[in-house]
Specification:
transmembrane helix, G-protein coupled receptor
C-alpha cells in the first residue's frame, strides 16, 4: 500500500498540481503506472474499492502509450498530409482523454479518502468494489464520448476548407463545433474546480489526522 500511496502522490502532482504535463512527468507517470499494474497482479493486494480506482487510473496511461507509439510510427514512415492531420488530432484527443480520466479518478480516490476519514461506518455501503467498478466504467464511457466528439469536430474542421459551403453536412459541422467548444469550456472549468476540491479534501484530512 505504501507503493500505491506514492503512485497516487505522483499522479496528483502530474495532473492536479502541474499546470501542464512535460516529458519528465509523463515518463515518470508511465513508469509508475507500469509498476502499479504489476503490483496489482499480486495476490497480496486485496480487492478494495480504492484498489479498483487505482487500477483504472493506471490503465488510463495506456492512452499515453498509444499516443507515443503512434507518433513514432508517423515519424518513421512517410505519411500523407491528410493522414498526418487526422493522426495529430487523434493523438492530442487521446492525451486529453487520459488527463480527464485521471483527474476524475483521482478525485474519486480523494472523495473516498474523505468518507473513510469522516464517515467510515455510514459510507461503508457506498465504498464497495461494485460501485468503484461502475464509477470507473461511467468515467471511461463519458470521456471516450467526449474524445469522439472532439475528433469529429477536428475532422469536420479539416474538411471544411475543401467542402462546398452548401454541403448537407453544414448543420453537423455547426452542431459539433458548438458542442465541442462548450465541452472544452466545461472541461476547463471542471478541471479548475476539481483542483480546488481536492486541495480542500486533503486539507481537511490532514488537519483531522493532526488533531487526533
Amino acid at each position: 500500500m505504501k507503493d500505491l500511496r506514492r503512485y497516487l502522490v505522483l499522479k496528483y502532482i502530474q495532473y492536479l498540481v502541474l499546470s501542464s504535463s512535460n516529458a519528465v512527468s509523463t515518463f515518470l507517470g508511465l513508469l509508475g503506472s507500469l509498476y502499479t499494474i504489476i503490483i496489482l497482479q499480486s495476490a497480496k493486494v486485496s480487492s478494495k474499492s480504492t484498489v479498483v480506482l487505482i487500477s483504472s487510473l493506471a490503465m488510463a496511461d495506456t492512452l499515453v502509450s498509444v499516443s507515443i507509439v503512434s507518433k513514432m510510427v508517423v515519424w518513421t514512415f512517410d505519411v500523407g498530409t491528410s493522414s498526418t492531420a487526422f493522426t495529430s488530432a487523434l493523438l492530442q484527443n487521446l492525451l486529453t482523454a487520459n488527463t480527464h480520466i485521471s483527474c476524475l479518478l483521482l478525485s474519486c480516490v480523494a472523495f473516498e479518502a474523505y468518507l473513510i476519514t469522516f464517515f467510515p461506518t455510514e459510507s461503508r455501503h457506498l465504498r464497495t468494489v461494485k460501485n468503484a467498478r461502475l464509477t470507473s466504467r461511467i468515467i471511461w464511457m463519458l470521456v471516450i464520448a467526449e474524445c469522439a466528439l472532439f475528433q469529429t469536430d477536428d475532422l469536420l474542421k479539416a474538411s471544411s476548407t475543401s467542402a462546398p459551403t452548401r454541403s448537407p453536412c453544414i448543420l453537423l459541422f455547426h452542431f459539433s463545433s458548438t458542442a465541442a467548444a462548450l465541452l472544452r469550456s466545461l472541461s476547463y472549468f471542471l478541471g479548475f474546480l476539481l483542483r480546488i476540491v481536492n486541495v480542500y479534501i486533503y486539507y481537511k484530512i490532514f488537519f483531522s489526522m493532526s488533531n487526533r
